[in-house]
Structures are given as C-alpha cells and as structure tokens.
Amino acid sequence: MARMQKRLWLLGLLAAPLARDAVGKPMWVDPGEVPFPDGVQSAEILREDEALVASPGGTRRALIAAGVRLPILGAVRGPGCLSRWLLVGPLAYICSDKVKLSIDPPGVSETIHPQPADGLPFRYYFVGANGGEAYAKLSDADDETVAEQLEKGWGIAGVKEVSHGGKTFVLTRKGRYVPRAQVGGVAAYAFHGEPLEGKLGVGWVLPDKANVVADTKGGAKVVGARTRLQLVSVLESKSTGKDTWHRIGDGQWMRAIDLRVPTAASAPSEVPKGARWIDIELQQQTLVAYDGERPWFATVVSTGKVGTPTPKGVFPIWVKLRSSTMSNADDAQTTTEDGTPYSIEEVPWVQYFSKGIALHGAFWHRKFGFPHSHGCVNLAPLDAMRLFDWTLPRLPRGWDAAFPTPAEPATWVRVR
After folding, report:
1. Range 123-185 has CATH code 2.30.30
2. Fewer CB atoms < 10 Å away: N or C end of the chain?
3. Contact 290, 267 (CB under 8 A)
4. What integer pLDDT is reported at residue 384 of this predicted model?
5. Where along the chain do the CATH 2.30.30.40 domains lie?
6. Residues 34-66: tens digit of each pLDDT
7. What pLDDT digit, counting tens, does each position of 327-362 carry?
C-alpha cells in the first residue's frame, strides 16, 4: 500500500498545475526574483540527451530527448546554475539556461517517443549487400553528397519514409536520409512470454517440431506434435533412466531436451524483501520476473555464447535507456558471424545491469532459447518492452534514460 501511495504521489506531482497566487503569479517565485513570463507552462529541451539531475548541482537522474517539453513544477537557486534550477519531474532538475521556456503544455511528439504495439519503437531496416549511403538532407541526394557510408548488414532506425525526386527515402532517428532501395525492412515479431498468476508451470518448445507421446516408456505412441516456441503447460516432471520428461496434458509427455522450462527460485539476499527482481537461468535460457517471491512473468531469452558468456551473479540495473545505438566497439554487442563491422541504431528497451551487459530487445534474430549474444540478454521486443515498463526506475513520458534514486531503487537481476 505504501508503494502504491508513493507512485500515486509521483504521478500527481507530474500532472499537477503550477501553484499560483491570487493574481496568477507562480507562488514559488521568491520576492525580488525576476518572474517567468506570463503563460509559461513548460521547459523545452534544446539538445539531444540533455541531463537532468537528482538535486540542484547533484548527480545525474535522467537523459531527455531534444524537443520534449517538461512540466515546470518549481524553481530554486543552487550551485552550478547561473539562473534557476527548474523542478521538471520526480527528483529531477534542470538549469533554466539549458531550456526554452514555452507557453505550450508539457508533452512529447510521437516521432520522438512512439508508443508501439509491436515492441518496436522505430521502423528498423538492414543495409543490403552493396552497402548504402546516408544523406544529411534530401537535396544532397541529387548531387550524391554523402554524409555517411553504411556497411552491409548495419541496422538503421527509421522515423518515416518520404518521397523525393521519384524515389523513396528512410528518414532515420539520427536525421539522415537513406535510399529505401538500399535497405530491407524488419518485420514485427509476434512471440512473447507468459504472464503468471503466482506460480510457474510453463515451458516453450525448442526445436522446429517435437513429438508428444502417450507415456514415458520406450516406443510410446506418438499422440501429437508441438512447434517452435509454442507455449505448453508443465504439469509434472519425472526421470526414466537418462531421460527427463514433462507432462503437458492427460496422456501427453514431451522430452525435457525439447523444452525450455524455467525452475522456481528464491530471491537472493541482495534483493530487499518484497522487491521486484529478475532471475535468468543460463542452462534453460529462461527469464522469470518476480514480485517479491511471486512469479509475475516468464519467457525465453538468448544469453551469451560460449566465448562471450553472460556473467553470473546478482546485479542492480544501473541505468535504463529507451533505446541505444550498439556496435562492435561496444563490449555488450556482437559482430557479424564473419567478423565484419556491426552497428545497430536505437536498440530498444535497454537495461544495463553489469557494466556494458544489458537486457534489451533483439529484432535481428529469432533464436530465443539458444545462447546467441556477446554477453547481453536478448529478449523478443514485446518481452523487452514489458519488462522495461515493469522494472524500476520508471521513465516518465519524454525521458530517454533514467538512473535509480532512493525513491525508486534499482531492480535486481540474478544470473545463474
């Protein structure tokens, strides 16, 4: 109940109008201060990834996208700012020198922060076999003034497609224009994990097709089949000789090696009692999110390959980013199989928990249930988005990144 009251208080703070006196002036302007212009409602961010701090002159709290308008909830003097620190969110301040005061209400456009139904915040494309070119503006394409060369296999994040000179171009999140003919689009992936009602008992089929048999005896009758990543109920498990079997229905058994089945676990000692935490099981390639000791959600993942394993241990999520560009220069990301340069713009729903190792969405492969990364924990985009919205700290609308605070401490991740 206390946690819910705190959340409602924070949401109320974000939504609250400016407190004003009888003549309409903000009540938090000190006597002798130069007041804000009449009608000011928000602070518009001018630079990409502008930082908010947890207190005037204090540590980083968040990063904000250019163009976002944040609510002005208060103003104070403090170190590190020649004018005034503006309170623009829960435990979030910015120096007024770094913003443009606006008469428009707080808000963020869909082009800056889309709210996807498919787990993909942008339209993603991969550069074709012949490479590609990126132009700073559409007119540069007329005389082939290239701003950036794109390598085969690189991923770009598109905001929209536009026409120019009889051709179609992808406008990227970085503000570049890439010929549509040079890139291939990424299709949404419908797979997602399973919400739980306080207990486990679920599994997913690993091979493309796996038989269901009537019992666990040798030569048992085949009574059906299940296909890749199909969800099954795990009602009972038993071993016969060297084989382990899971019962998925009346007179229906499947071999354990054909399924990925998460096993229940207790919270590690580092996790505060009753707090949310995430359990990643390397052998099964599964993830279970717990609310205290209660399983809340489960899915299959892809962790690090043999040469680049995901580190075992218990870690707090130290920063969350709505998206982040990753390349082969990043310790958390892979190169292509043949070792060529690798870059993907705006990888979605990134949650770093062990230095450069993160939970994040992966739209470039569908090998969930098998190790397939250079250390990160890859999730299907819908699962990555669900977890991102569930873990702490939360990101209010318009925030690109958030760091934990005492009011919203980090969610913990255990890898075992």
Report:
1. yes
2. N
3. yes
4. 98
5. 2-102, 201-260
6. 778 889 999 999 999 999 999 999 999 999 999
7. 874 444 444 455 556 799 999 999 999 999 999 999
Query: Cis (ω within 30 of 0) for the bond into 105?
Result: no
Going by the DSSP 8-state scheme, the letter that residue 24 receives in this structure is S
170: its two tokens = 């992808």
Looking at residue 175, what DSSP letter applies?
A: S
- Contact between residue 76 and residue 140 where contact means Cβ atoms under 8 Å apart: no
Answer for the pair 85, 96: CB distance below 8 angstroms, yes or no: yes
Q: Where in the chain is the domain with CATH 2.40.440.10?
A: 276-415
Mean pLDDT score of the chain: 90
Separation CA 88–CA 71 (nearest Å): 5
Tokens encoding 409: 């401490």
Average pLDDT over residues 271-279: 97
- Distance in angstroms (rounded) separating the CA atoms of residues 117 and 130: 32
CATH top class, domain 201-260:
mainly beta
**CA-CA-CA-CA torsion sign (71, 74, 80, 81):** positive
- Model confidence over 176-190: pLDDT tens digits? 999 999 999 999 999
Q: Could you give the CA distance from residue 393 to residue 220 in angstroms, rounded to a whole number?
A: 51
Whole-angstrom CA distances from 72 to 3, 77, 275, 325 are 25, 15, 31, 30
Name the pairing type of β-strands 377-379 and 357-361.
parallel
DSSP string of 217-262?
STTPPEEEEEETT-EEE--EEEEETTEEEEEEETTEEEEGGGEE--
In sequence order, what DSSP letters do the residues of 329-390 get, joined into one string? Answer: TSTTSPPPTT----EEEEEEEEEEEETTEEEEE--S---TTS--BSSSEEE-HHHHHHHHHH
What's the rounded Cα separation, in Å, for the pair 18 and 20?
6
Contact between 310 and 375 (Cβ < 8 Å): yes
Q: Which fold has domain 2-102?
A: SH3 type barrels. (2.30.30)
